[in-house]
Amino acid sequence: MAPSAVDSRGLMLNGLNYDRHANGANGTKNKDVNTMNPHEKVHFAPKLKPKDYQIKGTDPGGKILFRDVNIIDSTGADPFKGDVYIEGQSPGLLEQGGRAFANNITGERIRYVGEVPSVEELAKDNKVRTINGRGRTLMSGLGDAHTHFSWNNGDLGKLGDIGVEEHTLASARSAQCYLDSGYTMCFGAASAKDRLDIVIRDAINEGQLPGPRYLANGKEMAVPDGDLVPGITAFAKGPLEMRETIRHHVKLGVDTIKLSMSGEQICETRDAQDCYYDDDETAACVDEAHRHGIRLCAHARARDSVKMCIKHGVDIIYHASWIDEEGMELLDKAKHKHIVAPGLNWLVATVYEAGAFGYSFEKAEQVGYKKELEVAIKGLREMHERGITVLPGGDYGFAWTPHGTYARDLELFVNLLGFTPMETLVSATAGVAKLFMREHELGKIKPGYFADCILVDGDPLADIAVLQDHSKLDVIMINGRVHKASYKEFVKFEQPQPVMEPKENVKLNNFVAYALDDGTGRTRIGHLDRDKGTITPLAFLSGTAIENLYQVIEVGEDNVIAGAETFPLTDSLNILAPISGRDVLAVGKNYSEHAKEFNASGYDSSDKVDMPTHPVIFTKRATSIVANEEDILLHEDFTQTLDYEGEIGVIVGKGGFNISEIDAEQHVWGYTIINDVTAREAQRDHKQFFIGKSADSYCPVGPLALPKSALPKTLTVTTHVNGELRQKGTTEDLIFSVPNLIHTLSKSQTLRPGDVIATGTPAGVGFGLKPPVFLKPGDVVEISVTGLGTLRNTVVKAENDNYVTKQVQAQSVIPISNLAITNHGVGLTTLLNGKKLNAKTIGRGPNSIIFIHGLGGNTSFFTPVLNQLGLNKGDHEQYTSLLFDLEGHGMSPTKATSRISIESYAQDIENLIKAFDMPTQNGVTVVAHSMGCIVAELFASQHTDMVNKLILIGPPPCPLPAAGADGSVKRAATVRAEGMRNVAITVAAAGTSEKTKTDRPLSCTAAQMSLLSQDPEGYAKGCTALAGAKDLQIDFAKLGKTTKSLLITGDEDKVAPPAHVKKLAEMLGSAQTRVLEQVGHWHVFEDAEGVNKAIKSFLA
């Protein structure tokens, strides 16, 4: 078995044992050698001029401002914080810091770096697109010095057999894949057909392809019997033929020409150490190419071919694996004329990773690749130490070095060649710009340079492997044009808009779902302004917030208004699938070409013919639905054939049964995007689709849903994987139309508003490629639909404890009472056991007072006490007061499974003390009313070392008499059956004095309102908790020895009559008592002054 060349993340490298920090034999660098910018001393022959290609299509009036970015400018200087401004300019000069910079092109260059004049004003300018970097890394786009657009990740020997049309498309996909990977400069190192590179280069420069910047090559030149692959080689023998072949390449329009000067073990025709050009041939090639202003590069692994390149002036030397001491000395003396691009990743991958493609580690070792790699690393390290320019570019496009993995070279430069991360980044940016001979305007983040840059969510200097993670490349720009950026990136300064008054004629129908960032789990629907990157929360006409798309569908989008102020879309906002909660109705084999590729794939167990006679219907489980930008989980023990299917999702607006095909269009509300992710072998083996298509995360949906009125009649869906176009189809291509699908589905079942139908996928899925290509960790799938934006998801390896599992497990059907009053828990305090209570502290003194209300009360019961004692001041220096609502009371919720008791109330107090870190060193005073007194008594008896004072207002007997317990149980049953109205009236009347009922109407009203404000279930559980006190035993005599107590009651208090209070005082031993005249059981409401006097005197 081959040793591994990658770690568990798929990053390089643990199979090669080189000291990644050492440089040279003694581990130090020669201080007299410039290893940071050796390319600056490279000067190509005077006849060679840069190809001054310009890319068309950038808006000359474009303005982009990056705020708060960590800038790596590719000069080798340390990164620095600042802003970067890109602005369209008229031809002329740019100025900054007293220096002038040539500017011959408009709209595509950097103007300011670091400090941007009038930056705050620019940020407010609606014509400036502002990106908040939030400290992320802004650097130059990367460059590749050894590029093959026309290599197609397959068998190199079969490249010559591909039709030119298909090959052109494949090359275009490779070009875009480079740009999608953050590469904005590519130096062509050979093309499989004469004009492939040239056509792609010209399409890029004309703005027909997005990039990258490219210098084109032709077929590589080789002598007969010296080719690597016959079908993609231009043959020439002798100086005259070679001159003629070069002139032919020049006539085609190449920018550079490649010689194949040495063999390659894998081709099994010539050894890599063989050189089969002679001096006359090499000299003739250099002379002819330079006469036409064209540079020459050479495939030169053999030591003699390297020396021949140096001797005759071949400009770019590829590989140089077997360079010997003589060749190294020659190269050192001529390092001002040559650049080396070793293609290092190809060599590493061939040794360690080609086994899966039929080229085993044992074979690679046998033919000499392992030895070549070891020798090459040693030689390349020495080149770097000598200040010879070595640039990254890994010979990508082979099966084991696929497109999209380009940045692996950078990690190898650090791990194997002794480059520092900064030296590697400089070589991959400014170094490749030198290869383009345009180092004055490419490869750096400096004023006057082209705005080719990437915004990286990470620090490449700390972990250069971050550049391999395409999901971390948040923004990619080329030529001042944004190629990649989430709509969340762009922020706008907005003048406040009046709530409920949207701008005239603005349709609020780009529906996006999101979760409120308050910990409650509540969801909302908003309107996304894609140009401004803002969201407007939406509401019913009444002003009530809209929670989900089902509500929009039911009332209709014309009955939806702006419900609150617009806010910027940021990464911290949790965007959800626009519609979820139900299984998705899905259709298979609904595009003819896909039906054919599916039937031919071996994965179709549903039928034996290409074209279905009836719609193939299946469902995707609701738990498989995930949102835009959420990960697709590769369950490796479930599937090795994970595949994508880009689809248009139809959202039903009007339900119905047996809907006719003629009327079906009236039942369509709108559309969204769906990725019908599939485990192909599970789809095949189970003989039906459900299992293979319903795994966790297998149904990404979003990011938007739009009504059909906001979209064109024909919709186009495209799918890209790692930037490569894989699928394209339209609703016109469906075998079974949307009306047909609605008619079919409704024949036997009633469709509901909000049902979603995935309409099927066009050809181009992974199993349809030759060979099949399935999704792997790190792959990025992007599905776009006309008017609906792009659904983007990254594939990751699934863990047992993944985010979908956590979300599903967190769902509960157990009801929680009294939660709506706090908007599902906003502002509540979470205890150690997970319970949430409404609680707060006031003051910051060293002495603690805890207030415990009674049955039917809440924290407001003690407001008069706090006010008159001055305890309501936040800066009170003597006391820290804790007020809270008992579980189920006031604003504290209670879960149906929570059993409330006097004991649980007491435990809550202990947890609250810990949660608020209440001071207890001076003892704690507990003030309680009614049932709260029993809680206080129990808590004090459990914490005699903490509680030193008790103030009990209307304390009931403990244990509670049997009659009182029975009455509490019956009262609980009453409120559960009838609600609070009758109980509130009865209890308030029975609990107040005659004088209160006649002369203190506000006091009666306060008692009644306190009771009416209670949640019936919370109050009922309080009643049963009180009933449980019939079995509670407290040693009051023992308690009295550790606490000083004040007992307050009313002379008409039926719950705590004076005789009972007197007896309790005697049991406590040292208790003071105070009986308030003409007062019932609601003491603070009936006689706040009397209560306050008693407490104030007691605390004095």
Can you describe what's shown?
Residues 6-28, 90-107 and 493-504 have low confidence and may be disordered. This protein folds into four domains: 142-485, TIM Barrel, CATH 3.20.20.140; 490-498 and 507-576, no CATH class; 584-803, Fumarylacetoacetase-like, C-terminal domain (Fumarylacetoacetate hydrolase, domain 2, Alpha-Beta Complex); 831-1099, Alpha/Beta hydrolase fold, catalytic domain (Rossmann fold, 3-Layer(aba) Sandwich). The protein is of the alpha/beta class and 1100 residues long. It is 28% helix and 22% strand. The strands form twelve sheets. Strands 1, 2, 5, 6, 7, 17, 18, 19 and 20 form a nine-stranded mixed β-sheet that branches. It has a seven-stranded mixed β-sheet with strand order 28-27-38-32-33-35-29, covered by helices on one side. The longest helix has 18 residues, at 369-386. Pfam families: Abhydrolase_1, Amidohydro_1, FAA_hydrolase. Belongs to the FAH family.
The gyration radius over C-alpha positions equals 38 Å
Tally of helical segments: 30
Cα separation of the termini: 84 Å
> Are there runs of 5+ residues with pLDDT below 50, and where?
6-28, 90-107, 493-504
- Which fold name is given in CATH as the topology of the largest domain? TIM Barrel
Shape: elongated
**What is the assembly state of the chains in this entry?**
single chain
Helix content: 25-40%
Sheet having the most strands: 9 strands, mixed
What is the annotated CATH architecture of the largest domain?
Alpha-Beta Barrel
Helix-strand makeup class:
alpha/beta
> How large a portion of the residues is in β-strands, by DSSP E?
15-25%
Domain count: the total is 4
**What is the CATH superfamily of the largest domain?**
Metal-dependent hydrolases
Based on DSSP secondary structure assignment, what is the total number of beta strands? 51
Kindly state the mean pLDDT as a whole number?
89
CATH class of the largest domain: Alpha Beta
Family: Belongs to the FAH family.
InterPro entries: AB_hydrolase_1 (IPR000073), AB_hydrolase_fold (IPR029058), Amidohydro-rel (IPR006680), Fumarylacetoacetase-like_C (IPR011234), Fumarylacetoacetase_C_sf (IPR036663), Metal-dep_hydrolase_composite (IPR011059), Metal_Hydrolase (IPR032466), OTAase-like (IPR057744)
GO biological process, one term: oxaloacetate metabolic process
Keywords: Metal-binding
